[in-house]
Design brief:
The structure is a homodimer of 193-residue chains.
Chain A: H1 2-10, H2 17-24, E1 29-32, E2 37-39, E3 47-53, E4 56-62, E5 65-72, E6 76-78, H3 81-85, E7 92-95, E8 99-105, H4 106-115, H5 117-142, H6 146-156, H7 158-163, H8 166-172, H9 177-192
Antiparallel strand pairs in A: 1-8, 2-7, 3-6, 3-8, 4-5, 4-7
Helix pairs in contact in A: 4-5, 8-9
Chain A binds a DNA duplex (30 and 30 nucleotides) through residues 145-147, 165-167, 175-186.
Chain lengths: 193, 193
DNA sequence: TAAAATCGTTCACTTAAGTTAAGAAATGGT
DNA sequence: ACCATTTCTTAACTTAAGTGAACGATTTTA
């Protein structure tokens, strides 16, 4: 499992054995059962997550209704906005599947960055990449219809459609579960006719 | 004008006179007239922008139609995704108003980061903050209706509604110009009735 | 394994956005 | 100052998403 993390890191910086051991000594690898809530609305936290196996989701609860805004699967990292802004969390994070996740906290990261400056570089590059990637995702969302968004998702993350409940997918696409059902039926109809 | 930039930077790291002079010697301050196109679709670039005065927008052209996805105003920074991914740009950038902007390129930044490691730290923090901020914006967009988005914008960036053409605002809100007109009329109607 | 809860789909109806077109208002260029 | 262009609004019609309700299928859990 550790190798997955180190393979990921090696795409950005090369680590010595000492550095690897320093990371391992932090004891950041954790398993969670499906449904486990990692973060609740209103809670303060300094934790960031990196998914090694499984899937986690972020969701808001508005008028008693869950609004899912993101899914993180294998080799994806999540630092909740509340960690950056140092305010209580506005959303929940929970496990869609049994998952193996590294959990680190920002004090730890400050310490590691101080000891190993190359970490600072990796964090900067990672943040810049994620920012650019997320910008593209946001732009695609804005400029397309729910149907186009669904077809786009089918292309880019077909696994999500299999492993995630439809009603969570629907709010991820910005629509209601019933509309997603209808939209899928519409697409099938087009393909036949 | 330079002071605006240094005031902004001072929120993240403190610079010596030497460091300030190093930045000034790069000659990054530029003025552009309203309508100037800074970047075109298909073009390769290494340039990042920081708006000191004025307003720039990013937009895609889909089937001959402009789709505006973002506005950047005073003290806001933009590194186009294509700079990070090193691919041709998928969108245009142009000036909504006469603007004063610092234009830097990524080779310059690599050099500055090498000379002054504190820049690396600032870039990391800035990227992390922007990532968190953009995540919140994306989530708000996903979880609200066009009407809610408009009312939200009225709260958070009332200046934009004044300084930007309605049809550009409309696509920024993910709808057509006619729908924005109608939606505004609907809101006025509610306030009276 | 039986009862309860969650999940996915369908339907009828409502609401709002997309489309096409027209015209008024504002802006820009010469 | 005038003409051309762009911008904004309105209207009638079409299309698709929201809503509330029902029902079977699946999953959970007691």
């Amino acid at each position: 499992m550790q190798d997955l993390l180190f393979d990921f890191i090696s795409k950005y910086v090369s680590l010595t054995e000492d550095e690897k051991n320093a990371i391992l000594s932090l004891d950041i690898f954790h398993s969670f059962r499906k449904g486990t809530v990692l973060l609740k609305e209103g809670q303060k936290t300094k934790e960031s997550y990196f998914v090694l196996k499984g899937c986690i989701r972020t969701y808001y609860v508005v008028d008693g209704e869950e609004k899912t805004t993101a899914f993180y699967t294998e080799m994806e990292a999540l630092t909740p906005p509340c960690v950056v802004s140092k305010t209580p969390s506005e959303y929940y994070i929970s496990c869609v599947e049994d998952s193996i996740i590294t959990v680190s906290n920002s004090d730890m990261e400050v310490e590691v960055n101080r000891k190993f400056p190359k970490f600072e570089v990796m964090c900067r590059i990672l943040s810049e990449e994620l920012l650019a990637k997320q910008r593209i995702d946001f732009d695609e969302f804005k400029t397309s219809s729910p149907e186009q968004r669904y077809l786009n998702l089918l292309q880019k993350r077909p696994d999500l459609i299999q492993r995630v409940p439809q009603h969570q997918l629907a709010s991820y696409l910005g629509i209601k579960a019933q509309s997603l059902s209808r939209l899928r039926a519409r697409i099938l109809e087009k393909r036949k006719g």
